[in-house]
């Protein structure tokens, strides 16, 4: 029997039809929707006189455009308000479960799925959002889709997709002190570039990966898309099963044992062939920071910004344009550079573990007076847990305030925008020009590195303060 990769096993089990010389028709187990990429899709259904085929397989929540303060009040921005209201109306019309602002299930779409146990091994999962790759941490095939594809899934619970190539990235060894899943991700992207994963689906393997918590695995898979990959995944194991067990939509009673037995088979067979392979050592990874305007422009925090020697043509021009936007120069150190804003949150680092890490670091210390910090839980459940564990008190004593759940300063689609020219250390996933606001300058980092910057007011190696 042919040795199969984990990706092959799940993909092949979901192929409804193979189009000769074309894409596969793939069945979708779970569809997540939000207020930005769904209105036009619902309009398309209406125009064609169609209903949602499997409303029970779709889950909705507003996240991108929502304010993170005063969520009990009417949304002031007219476009945002209309989009949220349309999502609510469309879900009511089609019988789709909708988690409204301030409801127990509300939050960022990629955080509430795992929290509720909706995300499970062996599934195919899509959403009109590129960071759907987050759900791959559970041993699922999860990827972002466009608005026309959202309409296709709503209408048929299937999607037409060419089968991607397969890549395995192995990270061996043990992470050093102060190094997190976020640092693994930024390190990998800095090595293979933002186009290194193009056309592939990544499986992450190796002891450094299997030793990550589920939260860490979600962070790593979330950032797969930033290497150009279609998505990322990690084979499920005891860590996965322990996380899912007892959650609202997890299999119950006798079904639980049957499900786990099936999930244990979800791993790449010995001898399975990948189109591309990379191997890295955990020992080579230190806390990472980006210095440019894409996630691949990252480096170890103690290193210097690369120089253009040896660079040619458009690569050199793009590099210099990026540094000019950031106000940095080649060969400079990042340590000691001024920080104006710190953002903790997003579907990358808005989970309870991220807030525990941040609170643990700032405990007994004080926020730098000239730093504005936005601490935004990824969901209502995360916010409740922060308060239940007393982390909010630790944060308040250190000079930080907790905001309400939403995508917040990850992207400039709501009120939380970094002002022009200001520097933000952000735990989110993208640092493109204007991503956090017109003219905003973003450095991507882990919650620990962000905490160190929030306390000192400059880029700081967190290991010096641990």
TrEMBL record:
Residues 8-457 form the Aconitase/3-isopropylmalate dehydratase large subunit alpha/beta/alpha domain. Signal peptide: none annotated. Catalyzes the isomerization between 2-isopropylmalate and 3-isopropylmalate, via the formation of 2-isopropylmaleate. [4Fe-4S] cluster binds at residues 347, 407, 410. Its EC number is 4.2.1.33. Heterodimer of LeuC and LeuD. One of its GO terms (molecular function) is 4 iron, 4 sulfur cluster binding. Belongs to the aconitase/IPM isomerase family. LeuC type 1 subfamily. Pfam families: Aconitase. InterPro entries: 3-IsopropMal_deHydase_lsu (IPR004430), Acnase/IPM_dHydase_lsu_aba_1/3 (IPR015931), Acoase/IPM_deHydtase_lsu_aba (IPR001030), Aconitase_4Fe-4S_BS (IPR018136), Aconitase_4Fe-4S_dom (IPR036008), IPM_dehydratase_rel_enz (IPR050067), IPMI_cat (IPR033941). It catalyses: (2R,3S)-3-isopropylmalate = (2S)-2-isopropylmalate. SUPFAM superfamilies: Aconitase iron-sulfur domain. This is 3-isopropylmalate dehydratase large subunit. Its cofactor is [4Fe-4S] cluster. Keywords: 4Fe-4S, Amino-acid biosynthesis, Branched-chain amino acid biosynthesis, Iron, Iron-sulfur, Leucine biosynthesis, Lyase, Metal-binding. It comes from Mariniphaga sediminis. The gene is leuC. Binds 1 [4Fe-4S] cluster per subunit. The keyword Iron-sulfur applies. One of its GO terms (biological process) is L-leucine biosynthetic process. Pathway: Amino-acid biosynthesis; L-leucine biosynthesis; L-leucine from 3-methyl-2-oxobutanoate: step 2/4.
């Amino acid at each position: 029997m042919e040795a199969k990769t984990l990706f092959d096993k799940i993909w092949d089990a979901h192929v409804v039809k193979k189009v000769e010389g074309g894409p596969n028709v793939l069945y979708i187990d779970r569809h997540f929707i939000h207020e930005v990429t769904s209105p036009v899709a619902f309009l398309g259904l209406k125009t064609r006189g169609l209903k949602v085929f499997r409303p029970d397989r779709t889950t909705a929540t507003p996240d991108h455009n929502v304010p993170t303060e005063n969520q009990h009040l009417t949304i002031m921005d007219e476009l945002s308000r209309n989009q949220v209201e349309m999502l609510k109306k469309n879900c009511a019309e089609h019988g789709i479960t909708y988690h409204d602002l301030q409801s127990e299930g509300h939050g960022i779409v990629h955080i509430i799925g795992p929290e509720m146990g909706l995300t499970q091994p062996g599934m195919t999962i899509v959403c009109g959002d590129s960071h759907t790759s987050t759900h791959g941490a559970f041993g699922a095939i999860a990827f972002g889709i466009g608005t026309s594809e959202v309409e296709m899934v709503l209408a048929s619970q299937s999607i037409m997709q060419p089968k991607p190539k397969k890549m395995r990235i192995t990270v061996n060894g043990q992470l050093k002190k102060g190094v997190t899943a976020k640092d693994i991700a930024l390190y990998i992207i800095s090595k293979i570039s933002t186009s290194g994963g193009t056309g592939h689906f990544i499986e992450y393997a190796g002891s450094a990966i299997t030793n990550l918590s589920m939260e860490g695995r979600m962070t790593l898979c979330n950032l797969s898309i930033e290497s150009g990959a279609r998505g990322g995944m990690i084979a499920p194991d005891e860590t996965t099963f322990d996380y899912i067990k007892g959650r609202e939509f997890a299999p119950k009673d006798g079904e639980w044992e049957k499900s786990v037995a099936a999930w244990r088979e979800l791993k790449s067979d010995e001898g399975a062939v990948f189109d591309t392979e990379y191997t890295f050592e955990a020992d080579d990874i230190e806390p990472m920071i980006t210095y440019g305007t894409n996630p691949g422009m990252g480096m170890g925090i103690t290193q210097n910004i690369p120089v253009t020697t040896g660079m040619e043509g458009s690569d050199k021009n793009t590099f210099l344009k990026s540094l000019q936007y950031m106000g940095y120069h080649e060969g400079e150190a990042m340590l000691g550079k001024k920080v104006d804003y710190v953002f903790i949150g997003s579907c990358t680092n808005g989970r309870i573990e991220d807030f525990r890490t941040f609170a643990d670091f700032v405990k007994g210390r004080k926020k730098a007076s000239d730093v504005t910090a936005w601490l935004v839980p990824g969901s209502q459940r995360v916010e409740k847990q922060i308060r239940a564990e007393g982390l909010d008190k630790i944060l308040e004593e250190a000079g930080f305030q907790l905001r309400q759940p939403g995508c917040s300063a990850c992207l400039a689609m709501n009120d939380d925008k970094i002002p022009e020219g200001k520097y933000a250390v952000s735990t989110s996933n993208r640092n493109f020009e204007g991503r956090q606001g017109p003219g905003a300058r973003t450095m991507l980092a882990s919650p620990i590195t962000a905490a160190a910057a929030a306390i000192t007011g400059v880029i700081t190696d967190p290991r010096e303060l641990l």
